Amino acid sequence: MELMDQNPDIQHRMNNIKMITTDPNMTFTDSTGNVKYIWDNPRKVGSLVTDTDGSKFYRGWGYGYSHYITHDRLKSRSFIKGDDVIFLLSLEGVQFLFNANEILMKYDKSFKYQLHQ
């Protein structure tokens, strides 16, 4: 995941990047004592979640970073331009998730980052 520095001068841009490399053999033990693969299909290892708008999706076991960027770092660069931030996401090796009859991800919600001073 990359937060783009929107400085107009390309030589002064310094994007903020965090990466996770997955291990296909990484496991966890669920509440019933079964060992499961963390990166398996969320329908197998996750739980069904109902969002505030009523839509439902499966969420897998949480793994990653507890924070992404500090407010000081966010304000020190041109990450916010106007009221906009730009995130660049890259996913590799997820071809097995695609099925012609299913949509992998539907994102129709917007969010607004509000910087608290």
Itemize the secondary structure elements and their pairings:
Blueprint lengths: L1 E2 L12 E2 L9 E3 L5 E3 L4 H4 L1 E4 L5 E4 L11 H6 L10 E2 L29
Antiparallel strand pairs: 1-2, 1-7, 3-4, 5-6
User: What is the element string, with H for helices and E for strands?
Assistant: EEEEHEEHE
CA-based gyration radius: 18 Å
**How does the overall form come out from the CA principal axes?**
elongated
Low-confidence stretches: 100-117
Strand arrangement within the widest β-sheet reads: 2-1-7
Count of structural domains? 2
Helicity level, as a percent range?
A: under 10%
Structural class: mainly beta
Give the CA-CA distance, first to last residue. 25 Å
Number of helices: 2
The overall average pLDDT, rounded, is 79
Strand content: 15-25%
The main β sheet shows up as: 3 strands, antiparallel
Annotation, overall tally of beta strands: 7
3D architecture notes:
With 117 residues, this protein is mainly β. The chain folds into 2 domains: 1-20 and 65-117, no CATH class; 22-63, no CATH class. It contains 2 helices and 7 strands. It has helices at residues 42-45, 71-76, and strands spanning 2-3, 16-17, 27-29, 35-37, 47-50, 56-59, 87-88. A 3-stranded antiparallel beta sheet has the order 2-1-7, with no helix packed on it. It has a two-stranded antiparallel ribbon with strand order 3-4. A two-stranded antiparallel sheet has the order 5-6. It starts with a strand and ends in a 29-residue tail after the last strand. This is Meprin A subunit beta-like.
